[in-house]
Amino acid sequence: xxxxxxxxxxxxxxxxxxxxxxxxxxxxxxxxxxxxxxxxxxxxxxxxxxxxxxxxxxxxxxxxxxxxxxxxxxxxxxxxxxxxxxxxxxxxxxxxxxxxxxxxxxxxxxxxxxxxxxxxxxxxxxxxxxxxxxx
Length: 135
Fold this sequence. Notes:
Elements: E1 3-5, E2 11-12, E3 22-29, E4 35-41, E5 43-50, E6 53-60, H1 71-80, E7 85-93, H2 96-109, H3 129-132
Parallel strand pairs: 1-7
Antiparallel strand pairs: 1-2, 3-4, 3-7, 5-6
């Protein structure tokens, strides 16, 4: 399944990541309209041994095949098939804090926690203002 960039029919590819750290996304079930707002980073932390010492590096994440962290959504995707869902990137973000900010903004703006039309069940964030100054 593919990711689409917000409000376009353009398929999002790895070449389009540029200097983005992660994305905020929306997954929609085409038949029921039920949605999920989440965030995903394009890389993940990994440690490896270098000359007897642990070194942290960043490696590509599984963002291309990602279906969110919500168990109910994952079960529905397995049951209904991924072709019944549209995966849309709402925001490309340059930092972890920016991803958290926009994910929570979308959840609150859409009233996702108060609506039965969303899979979202909870949200949590700690965002420092000085991390967002570059926005």
